[in-house]
């Protein structure tokens, strides 16, 4: 049985339990509209979901009941006893079908068809005001009807012979037929469903529990708190060996707990995927396309709030695929494709992200069409468009107002599509990637973080306070040393600017922005220049807030940290510059800066089209490819691709720990495997205070460290070719006139994460395996 | 809202009431005045904390403190009364240490920064007097009358009126 059905069973069971309670109450207070509303909702929910799951029998029953309940709710009919007993009968029938679904995984369509029909007829009959005489004797038949709350067998064809046509007509309702075991009396019949039914239905609902999201949020909050306390304890006890074991244990338990609580908030993406079969069917009929929907990885789990947030973007993406991607059947045949197009929804987890792919095997995106449409809609100038490459052109479809649709239909074409997708996904810290092969289809990839509550941030210092800057908006950091500050910052009439690779970047001084009382060099052109700037180191955080690029100048940088976002009270939210607050590992509070609001307040506007800054990054990345960090490890020189380098750490030897023979570094619970094939650690001798240098690199989704003796230079590498064959030589590059080996990060084996040995194994650490030894060559 | 009405009525009990009700008030000192807060609204008293400044926040905000996994906005009573920030250094840093009373109001929780927290006093509703008419408008908006004690006056504070949301709305 799939998750959705199981959930439906639990939900319906709960609904029916509620309905039963309300029905019994209703007998005493027939005019209570709240009770009626509650019953109506229960039946309505069941009806809504069944239609969608394809349980026709259930749907038919629930639908009839809903009609009757609708009349009751609207006051067109008052709840008399025959109606109530009819409803109870309906409830029992619904229970019966639910049981069949749970045990046999189908609703037994066609089974007991005449019983269903009778019940439906009865319910329809009841909808006519005054159709059923209300007499005292009806009490009997009520109890009879209730007893059908009844073991499943009562509904089986064998026993279900001629039930009287007007079961509830008290005059003609003698002892109900064998199937309806007669009740001892009204009192007993008021008991809920006989126990015999319970175990089966209970099976699904016993193992799960519905928990208020508020409570979960509270738990998440407390766990976050525990994580912070743990960090502080780890810091405080780092020097005391007697505490090490204890604090490690605390560390582990906390990590487990955090994971469990996070898991509790997780829901399978099938909750969102499940609505697509319907959408795809309706849309493909409307658009006269033949589409087969394939869904994969529905069990992938995502935080509930994130799941809500991706609903709309996914719907947009699916609509787009159907309308623009998959062609008409005849076009497809002409192109030699299966007339039936395939739309694939795929979800999978990749380290700390969940990837959701919407791919189709349609026509792909016509790059030239995108180009001409973008020019036509005035989103880009013709000259610029001519310079753009294929990848940049694809990015254009994310611009607000872009659409290639010839006409506005109610499916798409209004030009609010992809930009909404991107905005919504970025709002939750995700990313959108687009891949398209002309003629072969398009793949849209949504990269969603696993959780919202914890975000990576860079801690910066200003006004002798710490502030957290979300990493998502941060594109690079520039250090301006004290002696260069006077020349590096240029001014246009009081507006400070920095030349970043030839482009002028507007600067915002965080301290000036946050303390309006400080003398403003910016507002007074006369002291523009260096006068306003103190003679110390400055750091420029180059931020990209919704396409607005600017440099935020801060006094200092601290570590990057995974922060737990805490909401601010309303009175502080109105300031607008802070999106929340967090408690750092040191126990200090830090406000989380909102780059978008800072840009708005400082009046930074989108000076250039957004795609231009994207392009810059592209160019920059290309440039980075050929740039290398030249390091010396042992006696040899080696090159590390600069694009892969995240940071360079200099730390004392005693920070290095071992997992088996492998040296690792522990960064606040994140293990970084260290590659030391050159024997740098051995060269440091046994001195725990000896300083070592570790180049932290990105390899795929993981990070690895390379131990080096010195970092020498950053240089541009030239490619080398084999003499004669002219084949490009892999793994080596020409750096500063020397042939230098490039460190192959992929060759560094992953950590055996699941089998982490807890003990340090000092003795084995120099058994560096052969293949590792070759990586730094 | 129910808590509010309880407070209001309890504070408003007059001498005429036949049987005086005994109430427990937590006494706090700010400057030279003794203030009282109904203990029913106090969640916790946190001593010696250093609130973190929030640049650009309204004046009355005393900063943020970390309280049981949440970030709590505090209100500086000194600031509200127009007194200088105690011990605050020139740079507006967070070196000053305060006692914080965590209060619950209808809108949520907040902290009240005071100089020191005293004992819990039992007062009788028969000793309650309304704000004197000579009190300036700003103060009479904050105070909820006073109790006459042997050792002096206990000026009552109403948590609802000290709530940062309320203060923010009044200031705006």
Mean pLDDT of chain A: 72
CATH superfamily of the largest domain in chain A: HPT domain
Main sheet record of chain B: 6 strands, mixed
The biggest sheet of chain A amounts to: 6 strands, mixed
Strand % of chain A is 15-25%
Provide the succession of SSEs of chain B.
Answer: HEEEEEHEEEEHEEHH
> What structural class is derived from the secondary structure elements of chain B?
alpha+beta
Q: Return the CATH class of the largest domain in chain A.
A: Mainly Alpha
Strand arrangement across the biggest beta sheet of chain A: 10-14-15-13-12-11
Q: Distance between the terminal alpha carbons of chain B, to the nearest Å? A: 23 Å
Give a concise summary:
The complex is a heterodimer of chains A (777) and B (172). By secondary structure, chain A is an alpha+beta fold.
Your description of this structure?
The complex is a heterodimer of chains A (777) and B (172). With 777 residues, chain A is an alpha+beta fold. Chain A has five domains: 3-206, HPT domain (Four Helix Bundle (Hemerythrin (Met), subunit A)), CATH 1.20.120.160; 213-265, Helix Hairpins; 268-449, Histidine kinase-like ATPase, C-terminal domain (Heat Shock Protein 90, 2-Layer Sandwich); 458-616, OB fold (Dihydrolipoamide Acetyltransferase, E2P) (Beta Barrel), CATH 2.40.50.180; 626-775, OB fold (Dihydrolipoamide Acetyltransferase, E2P). Helices cover 38% and strands 24% of the residues of chain A. Chain A has 25 helices and 29 strands. In chain A, helix 3 runs antiparallel to helix 4 (81-104), helix 4 (81-104) runs parallel beside helix 6 and helix 13 packs antiparallel against helix 18 (418-427). Chain A is globular and about 95 Å long. The model of chain A is unreliable at 132-203, 520-531, 607-621 and 754-777 (pLDDT under 50). Chain B has 172 residues and is an alpha+beta fold. Chain B is built from five helices and eleven strands; from the N terminus they run αβββββαββββαββαα. Chain B has helices spanning 2-12, 77-80, 137-142, 159-162, 164-171, and strands spanning 22-30, 33-38, 42-49, 61-67, 70-76, 98-105, 108-114, 116-124, 128-129, 143-148, 153-157. The two termini of chain B are 23 Å apart.
């Amino acid at each position: 049985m799939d998750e959705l059905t199981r959930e439906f069973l639990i939900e319906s069971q709960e609904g029916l339990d509620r309905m039963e309670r309300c029905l019994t109450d209703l007998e005493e207070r027939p005019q209570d509209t709240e009770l009626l509303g509650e019953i109506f909702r229960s039946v309505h929910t069941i009806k809504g979901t069944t239609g969608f799951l394809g349980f026709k029998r259930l749907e038919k029953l629930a639908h009839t009941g809903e009609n009757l309940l609708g009349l009751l709710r609207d006051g067109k009919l008052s709840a008399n006893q025959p109606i109530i007993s009819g409803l109870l009968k309906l409830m029992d029938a619904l229970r019966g079908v639910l049981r069949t679904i749970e045990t046999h995984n189908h609703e037994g369509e066609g089974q007991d068809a005449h019983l269903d029909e009778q019940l439906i007829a009865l319910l329809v009959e009841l909808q006519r005001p005054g159709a059923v005489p209300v007499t005292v004797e009806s009490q009997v038949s009520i109890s009879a009807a209730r007893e059908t709350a009844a073991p499943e067998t009562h509904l089986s064809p064998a026993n279900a012979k001629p039930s009287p046509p007007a079961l509830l007509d008290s005059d003609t309702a003698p002892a109900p037929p064998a199937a309806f075991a007669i009740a001892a009396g009204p009192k007993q019949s008021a008991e809920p469903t006989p126990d015999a039914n319970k175990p089966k239905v209970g099976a699904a609902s016993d193992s799960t529990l519905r928990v208020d999201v508020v409570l979960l949020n509270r738990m998440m909050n407390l766990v976050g708190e525990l994580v912070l306390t743990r960090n502080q304890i780890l810091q405080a006890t780092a020097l005391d060996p007697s505490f090490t074991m204890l604090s490690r244990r605390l560390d582990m338990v906390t990590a487990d707990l955090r994971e469990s609580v996070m898991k509790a908030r997780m829901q399978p993406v099938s909750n969102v995927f499940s609505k697509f079969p319907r959408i795809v069917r309706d849309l493909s009929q409307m658009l006269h396309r033949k589409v087969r929907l394939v869904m994969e990885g529905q069990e992938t789990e995502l935080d509930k709030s994130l799941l809500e947030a991706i609903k709309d973007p996914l719907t947009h993406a699916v609509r787009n695929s159907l309308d623009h991607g998959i062609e008409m059947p005849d076009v497809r045949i002409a192109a030699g494709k299966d007339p039936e197009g395939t739309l694939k929804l795929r979800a999978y987890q990749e380290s700390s992200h969940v990837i959701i792919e919407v791919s189709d095997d349609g026509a792909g995106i016509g790059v030239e069409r995108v180009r001409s449409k973008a020019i036509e809609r005035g989103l880009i100038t013709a000259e610029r468009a001519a310079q753009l490459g294929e990848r940049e052109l694809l990015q254009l479809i994310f611009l607000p107002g872009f659409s290639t649709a010839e006409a506005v239909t109610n499916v798409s074409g209004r030009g609010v599509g992809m930009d909404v997708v991107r905005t919504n996904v970025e709002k939750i810290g995700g990313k959108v990637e687009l891949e398209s092969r002309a003629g072969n289809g398009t793949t849209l990839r949504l990269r969603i973080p696993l959780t919202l509550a914890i975000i990576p941030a860079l801690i910066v210092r200003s006004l002798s306070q710490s502030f957290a800057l979300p990493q998502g908006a941060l594109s690079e950091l520039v250090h301006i040393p004290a002696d260069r500050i006077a020349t590096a910052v240029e001014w246009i009439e009081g507006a400070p600017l920095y030349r970043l690779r030839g482009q002028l970047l507007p600067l915002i001084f965080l301290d000036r922005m946050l303390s309006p009382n400080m003398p403003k060099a910016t507002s007074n052109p006369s002291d523009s220049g260096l006068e306003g700037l103190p003679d110390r180191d400055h750091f420029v955080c180059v931020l990209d807030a919704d396409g607005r690029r600017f440099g935020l100048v801060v006094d200092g940088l601290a570590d990057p940290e995974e922060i737990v976002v805490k909401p601010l009270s309303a009175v502080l939210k109105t300031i607008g510059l802070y999106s929340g607050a967090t408690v750092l590992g040191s126990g200090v509070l830090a406000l989380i800066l909102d780059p978008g609001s800072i840009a708005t307040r400082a009046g930074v506007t989108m000076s250039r089209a957004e795609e231009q800054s994207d392009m810059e990054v592209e160019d920059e990345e290309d440039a980075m490819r050929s740039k290398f960090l030249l390091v010396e490890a042992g006696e040899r020189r080696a090159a590390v691709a600069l694009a892969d380098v995240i940071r360079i750490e200099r730390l004392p030897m005693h920070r290095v720990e071992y997992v088996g023979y492998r040296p690792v570094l522990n960064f606040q619970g994140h293990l970084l495997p260290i590659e030391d094939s050159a024997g740098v650690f051995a060269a440091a001798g046994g001195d725990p205070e000896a300083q070592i240098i570790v180049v932290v690199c990105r390899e795929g989704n993981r990070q690895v460290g390379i131990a080096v003796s010195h970092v020498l230079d950053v240089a541009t590498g030239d490619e080398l070719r084999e003499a004669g064959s002219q084949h490009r030589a892999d793994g080596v590059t020409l750096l500063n006139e020397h042939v230098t080996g490039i460190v192959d990060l992929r060759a560094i084996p992953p950590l055996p994460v699941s089998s982490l040995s807890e003990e340090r194994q000092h003795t084995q650490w120099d058994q560096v395996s052969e293949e590792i030894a070759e990586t730094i060559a | 809202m129910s808590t509010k009405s309880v407070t209001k009525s309890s504070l408003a009990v007059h001498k005429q009431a036949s049987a005086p009700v005994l109430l427990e008030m937590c006494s706090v000192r700010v400057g030279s005045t003794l203030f009282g807060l109904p203990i029913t609204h106090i969640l916790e008293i946190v001593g010696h904390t250093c609130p973190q400044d929030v640049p650009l926040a309204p004046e009355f905000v005393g900063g943020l403190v970390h309280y049981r996994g949440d970030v709590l906005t505090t209100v500086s009573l000194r600031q509200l009364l127009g007194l200088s920030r105690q011990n605050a250094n020139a740079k507006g840093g967070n070196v000053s240490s305060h006692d914080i009373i965590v209060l619950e109001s209808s809108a949520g929780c907040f902290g009240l920064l005071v100089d020191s927290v005293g004992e819990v006093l039992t007062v009788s509703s028969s000793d309650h007097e309304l704000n004197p008419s000579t009190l300036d408008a700003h103060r009479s908006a904050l105070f909820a009358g006073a109790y006459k004690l042997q050792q002096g006056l206990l000026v009552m504070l109403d948590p609802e009126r000290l709530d940062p949301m309320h203060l923010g709305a009044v200031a705006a």
